[in-house]
Amino acid sequence: MNNAINATHLTFLLTGAFWTLVLSLMAFVGGGVVGLVIALGRTSPVRFLRILSGGYVQIVQGTPLLVILFVVYFGLPTVGYSLSPMLAAGLSLTIYVSAYLGEIWRGCLEAVPKAQWEAAECLALSKTQRMVKVILPQAVRIATPPTVGFSVQIIKNTSLASVVGFVELARAGQLINNSIFQPFSIYMIVALLYFCMCFPISVFSRRLERTGASRLKAAETAVSA
Amino acid sequence: MPVVVLKDVKKSFGSLQVLRGVSFSVDKGDVVALIGASGSGKSTALRCIDRLETIDSGTIDVCGYSVSDPNLDLRRLRLDVGIVFQSYNLFPHLTVEENITLAPRSVKRMQKAEASEIAREVLAQVGLSDKADNYPEQLSGGQQQRAAIARSLAMQPKVMLFDEVTSALDPKLTGEVLKVIETLAASGMTMIMVTHEMAFARRVADQVVYMHQGRVHEAGAASILTHPTTAELSEFISNDL
């Protein structure tokens, strides 16, 4: 019996990596949309919305992603909603990511100086115009480095989807290992593939932070000059 | 016919009473200098006029609007009142021209070309014609403040409020901003300015309102700055020299 890692195994791992990326994208888009709603709720002038979104964040952040995944995949069918492993993983990650992105973005919205709201208000802009044309564009700038940084967490956390049988990179590694039992080499390759996906994003995030900082510095020197 | 009238305005922040019954009025085309020590309530009084603060009692009328009316449409008030702040508060993500055209375009629904034309006019007025495409961070403090004045002017307000607009600037930059305000005053704009520039107030103001401990302590023509009648104003002025 041939126990060596061959090209078929590598193709299988690469396919797994592809699904890891797909799942990451689902989580990022879904979590981003819900996260934006959460961030707006957290900074809303309406008390009820603040409490509701704050409660959501507390509950999700206080629950392991694995447990969310179990509830969605094994729990929902008992009340009549059966989801495929991929949808279950996508939904769980969406819930998880939205709570964290919501909090990150809330901080970024609050980091825009209050005086900007006031200046916009004094120009007779409506509440929506103030938010959309003055506050959000500035918050997006502040939010970009931490958001890109967090997407590394998303990619790594998709590996948990393997427990409900979704064949992404980690699960692909497990399956190959079950047949040829070479855990060290296989999981090293899996780790390397994760690293190849995450490292460029980390570098990008760090560069964003640096350019953000230098932009600020340039602004300071321009003012003091 | 007064454009701005304050009657017995009172305002507290928590247990601290900042305005203890402030009354004064501003006629159309008049320039009023609001002076006084830090904490005398002059900035608060100014902010109340634009409803950035709500008052506890008394009345404020601005351009026919009752500012103290809780049902007042604030956006209509702000179409008539322009305000410039000490910290400029330009929008950092927009160019100078975009800063100026934002409100005319989104509030007055102006076409791009028309709004740009107005931007050119107001920028010429404040001497920044060559800075339309710059971002605020590329300008000096004095230029930023003049851009902020231009942004306010683009909405063609009936009253302009200036809240210590030169306090963050060095003497040279202060000079260029004051020159813009002085030209504006000469053009007949109704203005209320909170200022620490006594020489400027003396030169430009039609009326000087001296605030002390939340009240109008002394008010009158600019000559009260050279011939004060109360001991407090005379002491306040002597500190300035």
Automatic annotation (TrEMBL), chain A:
The UniProt record lists the keyword Transmembrane: yes
GO BP of this protein: amino acid transport
Subcellular location: Cell inner membrane; Cell membrane
Superkingdom of this protein's organism: Bacteria
GO terms for MF: transmembrane transporter activity
UniProt keywords, alphabetically: Cell membrane, Membrane, Transmembrane, Transmembrane helix, Transport
Annotated ranges, domain ABC transmembrane type-1: 17-205
Chief subcellular location: membrane
Topology term for the membrane: Multi-pass membrane protein
CDD domains: TM_PBP2
Pfam families reported for this sequence: BPD_transp_1
InterPro entries: AA_ABC_transptr_permease_3TM, ArtM/GltK/GlnP/TcyL/YhdX-like, MetI-like, MetI-like_sf
Membrane-crossing residue ranges in chain numbering: 12-39, 51-76, 184-205
Coiled-coil region list: none
GO CC, one annotated term: ATP-binding cassette (ABC) transporter complex
Family listed: Belongs to the binding-protein-dependent transport system permease family. HisMQ subfamily.
Name of the protein described by the UniProt record: Polar amino acid transport system permease protein
Organism: Aquamicrobium aerolatum DSM 21857
TrEMBL record, chain B:
Gene Ontology terms: cellular component: plasma membrane
GO molecular function, one term: ATP hydrolysis activity
Family annotation (Gene3D superfamilies): P-loop containing nucleotide triphosphate hydrolases
InterPro entries: AAA+_ATPase (IPR003593), ABC_ATPase_HisP-typ (IPR030679), ABC_transporter-like_ATP-bd (IPR003439), ABC_transporter-like_CS (IPR017871), MetN_ABC_transporter-like (IPR050086), P-loop_NTPase (IPR027417)
Domain ABC transporter span(s) in chain numbering: 4-238
Membrane topology recorded in Swiss-Prot or TrEMBL: Peripheral membrane protein
Domain of life per record: Bacteria
Keyword field: Amino-acid transport, ATP-binding, Cell membrane, Membrane, Nucleotide-binding, Transport
Transport keyword on record: yes
Compartments (UniProt record): Cell membrane
Family: Belongs to the ABC transporter superfamily.
Name of this protein: Polar amino acid transport system ATP-binding protein
Native organism: Aquamicrobium aerolatum DSM 21857
